[in-house]
Amino acid sequence: MGSLGSSNEWFCGDGPGPSLRGIIRGSITPMGGMGIYTKAATKIYYWPGPSRFPIEGVSPHYAPSEIPPCFMIRYFSFPSMEQLGEAMRKVGESEIAFELMGFPISMIAANMATSNQEEIETFKRLRKQVKGPGFVIIIVGNSPGEFEYKKRVLRQIIDEAGGKSLEIMEDSKIGGAQLWRFIRVTASIRETFRATGDHHGMFPGHNTFAPVVRLAQEYAEVKAELIRKGLLLDDGADAFPWTEEHGFLAHAEVLYRYTASHESLKGIQYLNEQLVKRALKEPAGVPFFVTGDQLHDIFGPQTSNYHLWLRKIKKAFDPNGTSDSFGYITAKE
């Protein structure tokens, strides 16, 4: 499997070539389409922090009483997407980040706020304090010496790319609250759930940085036009790409804020159609929303006919078609 199955050399279990792990947890996952998993394993990484995070307060006003030693969170913005990409590339190459995530300032505001009105006011204030697109980065040191080294490397990368630190994130209370939510991956709760309106996202897929960024920027431009027409709420219309696996992969998202109106829903439908059209032209990977026969049959011929292999896999693992194929693919010829 993996590289051994296609190049006769062993260097990667996930490709190029067939990947057993990819079958069960690749970008296009079975989503229950090949049965139910009854056992699973996870890789455990070393955790240099405290056994219990020092959280105080009552939801939604909770935050660490202090940021643990050798932990740091920052938000950096850049004059252009090109400079943002250069900084991300260097962070990946230097392998200094505990966590790196592309983030528009609207999502930072949503994470800080506890209500719709507070979010709107925070967004208006913060958008004046950034240069352009940005990212959140968490730096963690296994020792004070390593921590200082990583901070020096980060400072050089940010300076060379013309980045600017968002001052409010340097506050131990505000930054600490963000730090805890990002590590626990609960930040999206505040970004996506509000009493009125909502945030939803389009995820173009995984690939190398450049094509993912191009697709996300095109999609953001379409979204910006819908904002100008009043079909979507104004949240800056930013796309936010980031790198994964220390720069080997890239991912991007474009969120939209809408109201429960017929006009807003028409705008969302138009956005979906435009993403499909652009994703078929830009080799940025298969979007995450591609499930079922119809969409796989559209994207497959544009992407090495992967849909034919998906059907062979489905037939091998579920020959009688007893598992739900709606979120995956059928084994039809």
Task: Give me a quick take on this structure.
The model has no long low-confidence stretch (mean pLDDT 85). Helices cover 40% and strands 14% of the residues. α2 runs antiparallel to α5 (144-160) and α8 (209-228) runs antiparallel to α9 (262-281).
Give an account of the 3D structure.
The structure is a single chain. The radius of gyration is 21 Å and the shape is globular. Strands 4-5-3-6 form a four-stranded antiparallel sheet, with helices on both faces. The chain is an alpha+beta fold. The chain contains eleven helices and nine strands. 40% of the residues lie in helices and 14% in strands. α2 (81-94) runs antiparallel to α5, α3 (105-112) crosses α4 and α8 (209-228) runs antiparallel to α9 (262-281). It has four domains: 1-30, no CATH class; 55-195, 2-Layer Sandwich (Alpha-Beta Plaits); 196-290, 2-Layer Sandwich (GMP Synthetase, Chain A, domain 3); 294-333, no CATH class.
